[in-house]
Amino acid sequence: MTTRSLRNHMNASSDSTTLWQGLLAQLTHGSSSQAIFPFIPRPLKWLFLIILFVNIRGLPLTWHIRLFRPAVYFRLYHAIRDTIESPTQRLARSTRLSPVGRDPFTSETVFKTRATPDACDFNIHLSNSSYAMTYDMARFKYVIEHFPFLYRDGGWIALGATHYVFTREIPLNSPYEIRLSIGTWDSKWLYMVARYITYPSSSKSAAKKLANGSSSSLEVPSTGAAINSRARSPDPTLPSFEMPLPPGAVLHCTAVSRLCGKIGRITIPPAIAIATTGFGGISPSKFGEIQSWRFHDHGKRIKAFYAGGWRDVPEGERWWEDTLGGDIERKRLDRLRRLPAMVGIPVLSPAENGSGNE
Hints:
43% of the residues lie in helices and 15% in strands. Strands 1, 2, 3, 4, 5 and 6 form a six-stranded antiparallel β-sheet that branches. α3 (62-84) runs parallel beside α5 (128-146). Residues 213-239 have low confidence and may be disordered. By secondary structure, it is α+β, with helices and mostly antiparallel strands.
């Protein structure tokens, strides 16, 4: 570097340092004639900055960043790995990412966050709208963790409806978590259950809150018809569909969403999406075959299968019915009956729904 270029570089650095020092001085001890907006008192400026910092999660585009961060990280990380690994290594890694052999009803995603001031209302607790805003992020995280290749396969998940049952408020600045799991599914809709819970600071406080709940059992309707029952608050002492709360946890809200898998405008039956992801009793050889559909010929075969190719499989050879059969199918039908009584929303009866795999 020549002496002249070095001098120019030093001058540029000096100018940048001087600029930042000037801005800091204007906010701290600079004269009113040099300050930004000199007609505004300096304490009000600091108050504005503090409010801005406290409500930083409410700034424009912040929600989008928090929502898409898991997906961006997932895509970038695996795109880099794809460039340096062999096809065999990529296949092994994708298999590890998939929930192969897991029970679709017990596999959970936990999303942790806090009731920050921007998410609370004038009652000093989490506002109703914030439950939905946070649920979007938690649901997106669930899809990334449990259906890691659905978007890569050309699919996506549409939200049809969400039903909330509020049990108690979440106070300002309280840390809380959303625990998501599959509740059940029918021939079109996947019903996802989300539970908003907190952990009181002491076990004594937790026991007191839990004691305030009702001791009655969850009613299970004996009929298979669709039920238009009124929404009722779930018993905080009872698990949701045999999904126990963690020790010391307090239930604040239960949400049930109706989700629909899509490829383009074509519906992907929930049983197809769940089975091709690896849930249930799928055999290693069959899952390996599905993975080959994904990674050969740009995934054309898995796309065609989602888009209606599954209908061409003969009745006796529909492997996804065996994968999600037995105990999983019994749980699915039982939960279809129990879900309306839990949150008061109508769902298809087992008689109307059939096997759920059509």
